[in-house]
C-alpha cells in the first residue's frame, strides 16, 4: 500500500487506501476510478472488494483488477474469478497470473495452472497473450499482461509496450503500483472507442519509462535505489520526455 499510494501521489493523483466493509461504497462514490488488488484476502476484505467493484459498475466508474498471485492457491483463484464476474474495466496481471485465470475461467479449475511462483511469474508475457485475448473477449474487458514486453488487448486489438527494466521485478508491489497507475489513467481517459485501451498502454509506458529514466540517476543501481528513483521520475518527468521515450506499438 505504501508504494502504490506514493506512486499515485508522485503522478499527481489523490489516492485513498480503503478496505472497511462499511466504507468502501462511499469511497467509490467520491472517486474517479477504483483499483481492486487481490494481495490480501481476509474474508471481510474480499467481501469489501466485491462491494466496491459492484458500486463502481453501478456508478459507471472505471475499475481495475490486479490478479496478485492468481493460481497460487485455490482461494486466490476463486476470489479472482468472483471479481472477474463483477465486470472490471481492465484486468492486470503477470503472465502466470493471466494464464491461471484464463484456465480457471475456462475449466472452473482452481489449481496452480499458470506456473505461479507465489506472487511472481515463471512465464514470459508473450506466453500469456492468447490467454489474455480469450479473457478480454469472453469478459468484455481489457487485459494487460506485464513482463519484459507488456501486452494490452481488448480481445481484438493488441498493443505492445517495451518500456521498463528487469530490476522492477525485485521491488515488491511494483506491479501493484503499475495497476494503480492504470486506474489513474482510466480516470483521465477521454470517452470514446479504444480510449481505455490506449490509456492502459500509456500507463504501462509511463511507469516503465520512469524506471528507465530513474536508473539513469542511480550510480550503482539496485532495487532500493530504483524504488526511490522511480517515484522521483514519476514526479519529475515532463510530457516531452514521455513522448520521446514511450515505446508503444500496435501489433
Ligand atoms: N524482464 C523485464 N524487463 C523489463 N521490464 C519488466 C520485466 N519484467 C517486468 N517488467 C516491468 O516491471 C513492472 C512490474 O511487472 P511484473 O510483471 O513484475 O508485475 P508483478 O509480477 O505483478 O509484480 P508485483 O507482484 O511485485 O506487484 C512492469 O512495469 C513491467 O513492464
Ligand atoms: C508480496 C505480496 N504479497 C501479497 S501482495 C504482494 C505484493 C506483490 O504482488
Ligand atoms: Mg503482482
Describe the protein's topology:
Blueprint: H1 2-10, H2 24-29, E1 34-37, H3 43-59, E2 63-66, H4 74-84, E3 90-94, H5 95-107, H6 129-139, E4 142-146, E5 150-153, E6 158-161, H7 174-188, H8 195-217, H9 223-236, H10 239-245, E7 248-250
Parallel strand pairs: 1-2, 2-3, 3-4
Antiparallel strand pairs: 4-5, 5-6, 6-7
The structure holds adenosine-5'-triphosphate (ATP), 2-(4-methyl-thiazol-5-yl)-ethanol (TZE) and magnesium ion (MG).
Adenosine-5'-triphosphate (ATP) binds next to α7 and α8.
Strand order of the largest sheet: 1-2-3-4-5-6-7
- Which regions are unreliable across 5 or more consecutive residues at pLDDT < 50? none
Radius of gyration: 17 Å
- The averaged pLDDT comes out at 96
Number of strands: 7
CATH superfamily: Ribokinase
Sum up the overall morphology in one term.
globular
What CATH architecture would you give?
3-Layer(aba) Sandwich
* Content of β-strand: 5-15%
* Total domain modules: 1
Amount of helix: 40-55%
- SSE arrangement, N to C: HHEHEHEHHEEEHHHHE
The unique ligands bound to this protein are: adenosine-5'-triphosphate, 2-(4-methyl-thiazol-5-yl)-ethanol, magnesium ion
In short:
This protein has 10 helices and 7 strands.
In words, what does this structure look like?
- The protein has 251 residues and is α/β, with parallel strands linked by helices.
- It has a single domain (2-250), classed as Ribokinase (UDP-N-acetylmuramoyl-L-alanine:D-glutamate ligase), CATH 3.40.1190.20.
- The protein is 50% helix and 12% strand.
- It has a 7-stranded mixed sheet, with helices on both faces.
- Helix 3 links the parallel strand 1 and strand 2 (63-66).
- Helix 1 (2-10) runs parallel beside helix 7.
- It is globular and about 45 Å long.
- The structure holds adenosine-5'-triphosphate, 2-(4-methyl-thiazol-5-yl)-ethanol and magnesium ion (MG).
- 2-(4-methyl-thiazol-5-yl)-ethanol binds at residues 39, 68, 119, 172-173, 175-176.
Amino acid at each position: 500500500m505504501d508504494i502504490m499510494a506514493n506512486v499515485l501521489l508522485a503522478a499527481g493523483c489523490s489516492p485513498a487506501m480503503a478496505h472497511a466493509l462499511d466504507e468502501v461504497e462511499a469511497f467509490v462514490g467520491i472517486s474517479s476510478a477504483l483499483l481492486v488488488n487481490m494481495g490480501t484476502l481476509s474474508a471481510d476484505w474480499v467481501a469489501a472488494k466485491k462491494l466496491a467493484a459492484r458500486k463502481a459498475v453501478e456508478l459507471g466508474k472505471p475499475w481495475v483488477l490486479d490478479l496478485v498471485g492468481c493460481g497460487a492457491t485455490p482461494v486466490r483463484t476463486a476470489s479472482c474469478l468472483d471479481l472477474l464476474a463483477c465486470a472490471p474495466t481492465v484486468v492486470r496481471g503477470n503472465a502466470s497470473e493471466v494464464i491461471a485465470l484464463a484456465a480457471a475461467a475456462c475449466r472452473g479449475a482452481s489449481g496452480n495452472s499458470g506456473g505461479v511462483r507465489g506472487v511472481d511469474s515463471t512465464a514470459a508475457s508473450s506466453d500469456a497473450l492468447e490467454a489474455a485475448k480469450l479473457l478480454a473477449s469472453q469478459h468484455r474487458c481489457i487485459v494487460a499482461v506485464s513482463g519484459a514486453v507488456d501486452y494490452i488487448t481488448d480481445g481484438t486489438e493488441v498493443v505492445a509496450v517495451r518500456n521498463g527494466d528487469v530490476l522492477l521485478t525485485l521491488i515488491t508491489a511494483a506491479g501493484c503500483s503499475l495497476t494503480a497507475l492504470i486506474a489513474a489513467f482510466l480516470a483521465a481517459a477521454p470517452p470514446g472507442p479504444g480510449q481505455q485501451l490506449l490509456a492502459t498502454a500509456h500507463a504501462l509506458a509511463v511507469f516503465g519509462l520512469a524506471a528507465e529514466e530513474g536508473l539513469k540517476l542511480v550510480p550503482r543501481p539496485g532495487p532500493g535505489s530504483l524504488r526511490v528513483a522511480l517515484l522521483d521520475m514519476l514526479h519529475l518527468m515532463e510530457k516531452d520526455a514521455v513522448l520521446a521515450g514511450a515505446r508503444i506499438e500496435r501489433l
